[in-house]
Every structure is written in structure tokens, then in C-alpha cells.
Design a protein that fits this description.
Elements lengths: L2 H32 L1 H10 L4 E9 L6 E5 L8 E7 L2 E2 L11 E4 L3 E7 L2 E8 L3 E5 L2 E3 L3
Helix pairs in contact: 1-2
């Protein structure tokens, strides 16, 4: 059986995952804006796997901070601070701007409500991103 028969299913699954990420994010944002106690619970539990788009990074080479767009790819709503073994760190590689990034186990630290930006830490081993058009991650 050829891959072409499964291509629509694979595309549909990817679209559903992306829509699920956005739906989760919209619910998270709504809950955080509505109830401070929700953020406290989130801070203790961490966040599930989410995919977004890298809007900016600091510094531009081997960044320690990534600004991620989730609902809208060009609007940063999540500030990811990179860690390694619980300490602030920089990535060993440089992700491509405007590329997709997938991360899990991000731990929220703070939130700014207007404009909405959630700041979270994430271990570099919990990132999957593209570098120069190829899948990468911590090297």
C-alpha cells in the first residue's frame, strides 16, 4: 500500500493536532485572564505538549529566550526561557525564525495580562524545532 493513500489522513491528523494546540491555548488564556487561581494551578502542574511558531529569539544566535506565537504565528504570546538541569541555558543550535517549534513540560513562571504574554521555563531537551529547514533540537 502506498503512502499516497495515507497522506490525507496524515495531513488531517496534523491539522487536528494544530487545532488542538490552539484550542488548548485559547482556553488557557481565557482561564488565566478570568481567574488568578487557575494560573497558580497551572504553575504547579506544567503545560502539555504544544506547537507554535518562533516569532523572535534573544540573542539571535544560540538563544536563551524564544518568543512563540500559538494562536497567530506572528504574535508572540509565550516567552520560553531555556534551561538545562534547572539552570538558565542557551541552545547549542539556532532555530530558524518563523519555523515551527514543539515543546512539552513548560513550567509557567509569570503572566502579563495586557497584552497577554505567559512566561515559562522549559528544559532544552523538551524542545523540537527546525534549524535551517531541517528538524533539530539540542545537539
Amino acid at each position: 500500500m502506498s503512502f499516497r493513500l495515507f497522506a490525507p489522513l496524515v495531513a488531517a491528523c496534523a491539522l487536528a493536532q494544530s487545532a488542538g494546540d490552539v484550542s488548548y491555548w485559547l482556553n488557557l488564556r481565557k482561564s488565566v485572564l478570568k481567574d488568578d487561581a487557575y494560573f497558580d494551578q497551572l504553575r504547579d502542574a506544567g503545560m502539555p505538549a504544544i506547537e507554535g511558531t518562533i516569532v523572535t529569539m534573544e540573542p539571535s544566535l544560540r538563544p536563551h529566550t524564544l518568543m512563540i506565537g500559538i494562536e497567530t504565528p506572528l504574535v508572540a504570546e509565550l516567552r520560553l526561557e531555556i534551561q538545562h538541569d534547572g539552570q538558565n541555558a542557551r541552545l547549542n543550535t539556532t532555530p530558524a525564525l518563523k519555523s515551527k517549534i514543539r515543546f512539552h513540560m513548560a513550567m509557567p513562571k509569570s503572566v502579563r495580562k495586557q497584552p497577554f504574554v505567559l512566561t515559562a521555563t522549559v528544559d532544552e531537551m523538551n524542545l523540537d524545532y527546525e534549524q535551517d529547514g531541517e528538524a533539530a533540537g539540542p545537539q
